[in-house]
Amino acid sequence: MQGEDNATELELTASLQFLPGVGGDRAQKLAKLGLRNVRDLLFFFPRDYEFPAPSVPVDRLREGVEAALVGVITDAEIVSRTPGKSVFGAIVETSTGSVRILFFNQPFRAETLTFDRKVMISGAPKLTGLRWEFVHPKVTILDGDEAVPKPQILPIYALTDGIKQADLRKLTDLATASAAHAIREVMPESLRRQSAIRLRHAGINVVGDLPDIATALRAIHRPDSKEAIVAARTRFIFQELLVMQLALAIRRRRLTSALQAPVISRTGLWDARIKNRFPFELTGDQQRVIDEVCVDMSRQFPMNRMLQGDVGSGKTVVAVYAMMLAVANGYQAVLMAPTEVLARQHFRTLQKMLDGSRVRVGLLCGSLTAAERRDVLAGTAAGEIDLLVGTQALLFSIEFAKLGLCVIDEQHKFGVRQRVQLRGGGIDPHYLVMSATPIPRSVAMTMFGDVELSTLNEKPPGRCEVNTYLAHDGWKERWWQFVKERLAEGRQAYVVAPRVSPDERNTERNTDQDAEADSEDGKEDVSSVLTVFENLRSTVFADHRVALLHGRLSNEEKQSVMDAFAAGEIDVLVSTTVIEVGIDVPNATVMAILGAERFGLAQLHQLRGRVSRGTHAGHVALFTDGAQAASDNERLQVLEKTDDGFEIAEADFRMRGPGDMLGQRQSGLPPLRIASLVEDQEILAVARAVAQEMIDDDPEMDDPSLADLKQQMMKRYEARLSMGDTA
Ligand code: ADP
Ligand code: MG
């Protein structure tokens, strides 16, 4: 958006150095704020505003609360002239009573604040004796009968050394007055009107159309009301998000339209046959998501869909349905799990469900013998295996005869959603990625801008509640007692600790963590599974079968521990977060999490999901390692309040900020200037929808009225639009 064609008093590209009162030295300082020319100034938005104090009658003044008064000076004197300790005082008589104003070490005040002068003062008063007193109030001298001026809202800008608020205000004043009109409008009037309507529909407070660029620029620097600020900010936030979403929509379209995918269609007969294989009715949510998936797969370009659903929401069913439909259409499907334990679990589920059918299921994982492995690979390449399940690492670049669908389970890692290099016989498979770590919608819409999103909110019926307890001091005895009682009833228990051994520096990380807190570690007082295991089995649970599970065990060892636990041969499983992902042992109903403050909320929520799998109510107690009890930890309290994974992710996001959760950096997108992924989620959703429609109508934005908008988008997102990279 270049606007140099307009005759202006100030060129937009004019260097700040030549503006009145700037010069070379200041210009350098301004450059530190990213301010080089007049255009930069216009788009240097205030970070906040200073609102004028409300005018308040004297009998309504409150100590320390900002107020403004208009009155006449009836008495003024220098109370003390001692240099360095001078005091000037005056009485201001208003229509509702009089107040005193005081200035220390400003004897010059006596020259302007003279008898009979009309003034407006504002500040926070203090009651001394019988009179309200304002120390160093802001004073505006009013001319005789002149109407009291409307007090101004003042912008507050980010500053740097040597640049004062007043300097920036002067400069932005000058820039808005003499150059705002020269900025070219990138959002045509119809787009501003339509968008305003859409925003209103989404419940966002927009009065009339979104303001045009010149109006918005003036209002954001020199607003005359709160409403004007909101309108201007909404416009800029929307514009910024729209430009981003346009880029993502174009990218989405270019990516998919270049690829050729198998058309996988659904018939009533197939639908009925597949559903017959499930031992239960689908929930409404599962049905809806299956429909979304089927529409995608019936197109000739690859589906790229992420299915989010809380722990236990029944994502597997959706995947199984889609895979069976692919097989029914004569294609192969592959299901990738992050761990061998989970891959085997899926394999068993599929085998059970497909028992007696002609569908052939294969398993590819690390613990196969060389011969078994060869067989599976050959069967897959020959098309004899219809459904292949395996661990992700092993499924890269293997050969399929006719791959139609690739499902990736438990994909939590942000930003590393690599497209797997699968050779599928000249076609690109459809992708379905499943995640139980709910990503706030706004993050998903940004990070995974080129991915369609489906969400399972509803849980399958018959789910038991998980009771979550935030432990405080002296709780452990009682808790172990409680666990023993559950064990006596035939249930099983988990004990989770953040790290493997006491001497280990870092919290255990496996591929599935949204790992957090290991920063100030390296101290012995962090719970470790080795210590806890030794301790519990020699004391409290000496009479029970206690086992140990962590990421340093071999796959076979892990598998045999998990199998034994699933078979009920172990009472208490002491584990790191390797149990976090997908494990399904319905008889395990109690869990203690030690060092809970070291985990992310989403991860804790995942963990507790392990004890809500069956018909018995689940119980989870959170203990901390630090001095602060879990019950006093504000972050952990969220878990007690809600069982909704999305709400939890949202809360985590708000408390920790988007920073460490996704990092704009990781997304590969340029930073946002005014919009916030935390604060502006509703506007983002509207921007995404509007962008999608615009690109559906006009895939390359060829409409001349959108030329400037397109140019702005290209400038900002060119790198992201180049199709070379993945993700
Ligand atoms: P997740 O979304 O965590 O992967 P799963 O797919 O493992 O969840 O499902 C959790 C459990 O719920 C499984 O035991 C599954 O059999 C069961 N389940 C899934 N859908 C339904 C349904 N519609 N009705 C009853 N049980 C269901
Ligand atoms: Mg699952």
Automatic annotation (TrEMBL):
Gene3D superfamilies, per the entry: Nucleic acid-binding proteins, P-loop containing nucleotide triphosphate hydrolases
Biased composition (Basic and acidic residues): 501-512
Domain Helicase C-terminal: from-to ranges: 489-654
Residue ranges of the region described as Disordered: 498-524
Domain Helicase ATP-binding residue range list: 296-456
Annotated Pfam families: DEAD, Helicase_C, RecG_dom3_C, RecG_wedge
Keywords, sorted A to Z: ATP-binding, DNA damage, DNA repair, DNA-binding, Helicase, Hydrolase, Nucleotide-binding
Superkingdom in the source lineage: Bacteria
UniProt-listed SMART domains: DEXDc (SM00487), HELICc (SM00490)
Protein's UniProt name: Probable DNA 3'-5' helicase RecG
Native organism: Stieleria varia
Name of the gene: recG
